[in-house]
């Protein structure tokens, strides 16, 4: 991205002589954050298979959060929707602990298939197993175990698809591709909910039909997108247990822009998780219907949300490339989401509820697309440790996904004794506040406009 005018010497001034890299402790940071290596543009085949791959993963992976887990939990433990927070939070916690480790292993994988594809294949297989476990779970504990397997399996597929973007995409294509992938990852759960609405009475089909879509599109990516043979790669250090643990942390002062993007994503996803985890129960409460009846209602709304998400994700992504601006679009997406969440929290009728939901769709699309491009712009050590830093960045999602559902029941309980209902209004207002903080954090990034 272009530098700020403040980064350039004044007209007619004499620029200071550079300090030798061996004497300048900030030299490595400046090289990494301000002069990333140039990458050749990728072809349309890569772009569309990347988009379809992420679309498939999200149908298989996010449909359970959107509706399937709620339906199964309502069958296994009626009246205990708080268990959903414990299930989703536990899965996110496991991913948080394993993310950087698996990222480092991906960076160092030496196979004829390359570094990323073996993890996609293994993750897909584990993901299918997880769907069967959740579909046939006899109790909430087994349901939660299945979700942990899903996080490990499908999460690895998604993670390595995104690492592949860091490996291959040049700066000029990051906003566009992030916009397209951001769009499909937001509309994928809508398609998943539509599927769930037709097969909600059959637990096995409820999970396996979305899973089949994921397997199909991931297979296309693995088969047609080739990677360099990495069997001859040599690494500077041996991968011992202490070295592995050291890869879980980094010095935020060394990569400040990466750190601000990390914080912004974390705050936004904390609010987003508060908003989305209990969507089925929230709609059931406001509309006065049973949870099992919510799927077609959310699906109908979701179909209109597709257009809203398209506007936010593709519009924001393409414009951020054309205008060479990222931060203003990240803040704009967070602001739109917050406005929509407030409208939903205060909704007194169905039109207001639907309006708020559509505005949040625009905000999610814009934030997710442009923030992903911003991440790729500031990613440290792209050539050697993209998997490691993408794994660390995964903390920005997995920590909120682990913590938010665990503390959300406390917000829901405030005032519940008096009203006899869960306090979804407070929950959605708090969600709006956190997403706004996430947008403001992006303004602290210096190397990208």
From TrEMBL:
A single GO BP annotation from the record? sodium ion transport
Q: What InterPro entries does this protein's entry cite?
A: MFS, MFS_dom, MFS_trans_sf, Na/Gal_symport_CS
Q: Which SUPFAM superfamilies match?
A: MFS general substrate transporter (SSF103473)
Q: Which GO terms describe its cellular component?
A: plasma membrane
Domain of life of the organism encoding this protein: Bacteria
GO MF entries: transmembrane transporter activity
What is the phylogenetic placement of the source species in the record? Bacteria, Bacillati, Actinomycetota, Actinomycetes, Micrococcales
Whose protein is this, by species?
Pseudoclavibacter terrae
Entry keyword set: Membrane, Transmembrane, Transmembrane helix
Protein name from the UniProt record:
MFS transporter
Q: Where in the cell is it found?
A: Cell membrane
